[in-house]
Specification:
Elements: H1 11-25, E1 33-34, H2 37-44, H3 48-60, E2 64-67, E3 71-74, H4 79-92, H5 94-117, H6 130-139, H7 158-170
Antiparallel strand pairs: 1-3, 2-3
Length: 179
């Protein structure tokens, strides 16, 4: 018989979980004041020490703000509060992120070819597509310094253009590249 080990949760962790759930459900909103420690201890049927520890944990997560003499308030979740822990994890796991991008570099080209083959058909020809003509007219003609037309990217069969379009979309975003 196989059983999983029993994980004991600390009391303060359960308080944190419940407060986070109330925030997620909208029962606690930004700016709401939490009851005093004594009232929270009575409601959760725990010691004030456990409540205090939970409030410190919630503060370190950026979910509440403890103002001495005023009380504890639910903070507005800001982008910075969400990004900062993620940036810390990414910085500490640089090797894992590099491995992830290496896996993408190996897998995505192999996936892009079959995806392009399944594409619904060739992309519109730039000279026959009125939208492309308007864009070309607004941006000027693509000519080389000698007056010759530069080769169009993806020139050739419709399938080649589709593959190039899929590969272009499949490249990793520059902001996420691990360099």
């Amino acid at each position: 018989m196989e059983v999983a080990p029993i994980k004991s949760t600390r009391i303060y962790e359960e308080i944190v979980r419940q407060v986070k759930q109330m925030i997620a459900e909208g029962r606690l909103k930004s700016g709401d004041q939490l009851p005093p420690e004594r009232d929270l201890a009575e409601k959760f049927v725990v010691s004030r020490t456990s409540v205090r520890e939970a409030l410190r944990a919630l503060e370190s997560l950026g979910l509440v703000e403890i103002r001495p003499g005023e009380g504890t308030f639910i903070r507005e979740v800001s982008v910075e509060a969400l990004i900062e822990p993620l940036a810390l994890v990414m910085a500490s796991q640089r090797g894992a992120i590099a491995e992830l991008f290496e896996a993408r570099r190996l897998l995505e080209p192999a996936i892009a070819g079959p995806a392009a083959a399944l594409a619904p058909g060739p992309l519109p020809h730039p000279r026959r597509d009125p939208r492309a003509r308007r864009a070309r007219g607004a941006a000027g003609d693509a000519r080389s310094p000698r007056g010759r037309r530069e080769p169009r990217p993806g020139a050739g069969s419709g399938r080649a253009r589709n593959e190039e379009a899929v590969l272009t979309r499949a490249r990793p975003a520059p902001i996420l590249s691990a360099q």
